[in-house]
Amino acid sequence: MKRTILTAAALALLAGTAAAADRTLATVNGEKITAEDLTKKLWWQHAAQGLTDLVDERLVLQEAARLGLKADEKEVAARYAALEAGTQDKAAFERNLKSVGWSPDELRGLLRRQMLMRAAVMAAKKIAVTDEDAKAFFEKNKDRLGASEAVKLSQIYVNTKAEADDAYDLLTNVGADFAKLSALKSADASLKKNGGALGYISRGMLQPEIEKEVFALKAGQYTKPMQTGAGFSIFRADEIRQGQPASYEKVQNDIKTALLNQAVTQKLPELAAELRQKAKIAVTK
Hints:
By secondary structure, this protein is an alpha+beta fold. The chain has 12 helices and 6 strands.
């Protein structure tokens, strides 16, 4: 249904006015491609599936109303706030919404509908996750649920071996500051900006030959220059974080939520199909 929502937003944005429909989006050898051309293309590509999704959504929402379900407005506000927190500020978030033809109230309405549909599926299909279910999942997956060993890394990345050797000499014989040296010499813009900081890197995230060298370091130590991609790097271990076994008490609520979401996703098409069989649906040709 997400695809339908995005498509509908694009269609609404592009087809809002006659002026918008005539707006030129591109030219190909002098021939214009207008917003109307794109709208028609999107319509023919997505209309059938989009209509199916919208019908299913309406049926499930009607079932939620029949069951007397209500969305928790505090949870709606919390989910909205979580989405807003992912942008620079409130104004930027609302600009992003406006760019796809949405308003804050429309987004809150979408969140409300999603919550109602989830509740309807859980009620109609009698979905519940018990402590025993969560515990069984934990026991089966606890190795990957724990925090793996990780190293907080910094990196100097340069284009040539000579540059890498020069940087290594400055570190070992002159005592240069690693972060400042990375900001000065690194060929990568993000390393320059962040003083070489990469954050925590867990086992399995690096190429084996690099991982072997990096995880052999103690805090404060750095590797000799090594080839990485098209250039050469020196890595420093800023901190070492030992692996931690998973704690059921810390993850049980997350496990229950994940299992519920999985069950709802599986049962939603089933409920929609059952409701379709009992509904009166007329598609206008």
